[in-house]
Amino acid sequence: MSPQPSTLKAAFWMAGWLAAMLVMAIAGRETTRELDVFQIMEMRSVIGLVMLYPLIHMDGGLGKLRTARPWQQVGRNIAHYGAQFAWFKALTLIPLAQVISIEFTMPIWTAILAVAFLGERMGLWKNLAVALGIIGVVIIVRPGTSEIVPGQIIALAAAVGFAISVTMVKSLTRTDSVLTILFWMLLIQSIIGLVPALDVWRWPSAYAWAWIIVIAFCGTFSHYCLTRAMLHADATVVVPMDFLRVPLAALAGWLLYGERLDTLTILGAALILSGNLLNLKGTGARKK
Predict the structure, then answer these.
(1) Per-residue pLDDT averaged across 114-131, rounded?
(2) Helices and strands, number each (H, E), in the chain
(3) R_g (Cα) of the chain, nearest Å
(4) Does residue 96 contact residue 255 with C-beta atoms inside 8 Å?
(5) 12 — phi, psi (to 5°)?
(6) What is residue 173's DSSP assignment?
(7) CA 90 to CA 157: how far, in whole Å?
(8) How far apart are CA 161 and CA 76, in angstroms?
(9) Given a cut of 70, is residue 280 above it in pLDDT?
(10) Is residue 234 within 8 Å of residue 120, measured between CB atoms?
(11) Residue 283 reports pLDDT greater than 60
(12) Residue ranges per domain, the chain?
């Protein structure tokens, strides 16, 4: 039996996603100072499988994790692995806030893919939410003030890959459970990344180990939160909520790294929040 649509429940699970992704971005920046991206991703997947096992055991064991669409699981995880690699790589090339801001072209691609392949509709409120979110991101990033660098192109490629992955996750929730999707994600990506990781392997320091554990936990359970959110609302409802990660990243940069929080950043954050509130308001009004 499918869960009843609930924007409130979707927003709750997206709050978990936002917190985990923000912490993982900070952890990724710290870990890539010492280790190669391939190794970080492999350790994240393997440790994530160990962390996920208690939930698998409570749900009835590995026997309940058969997928109805194995090839879609493979395709989704190839897209996600590539996007995740590009995201971590971009963290080593451009500032954290810039990586996250460029990543927020993702809702544009997600909305297009969800309409094209999942039969979802945009509507006035969703269009306004996406428009205000994108305008807010543009104000924060201020494109045109400097030349485009390779890290920005890599971050944009990550955004497109994540959009493909999110769209395929929404499709997979129609036949597979949340735990099934997560299990196959971690297993497939462990297999994909094994050889590249072994080629660049070096034993992590205690400092790096601590951040890798954080990445594994946040990387695994952020996807649990995202997939749960997708069960309760359309992708075009869930994804605009993720715009909040931009002002949260700006705040984290100010608190942790002394990055300046200027008037335009505050204005952009306000527009992003307004877009999310309009999105939630429009969804609630439609269901009355």
Answers:
(1) 75
(2) 12, 0
(3) 18
(4) no
(5) -65, -50
(6) T
(7) 10
(8) 9
(9) no
(10) yes
(11) no
(12) 7-287
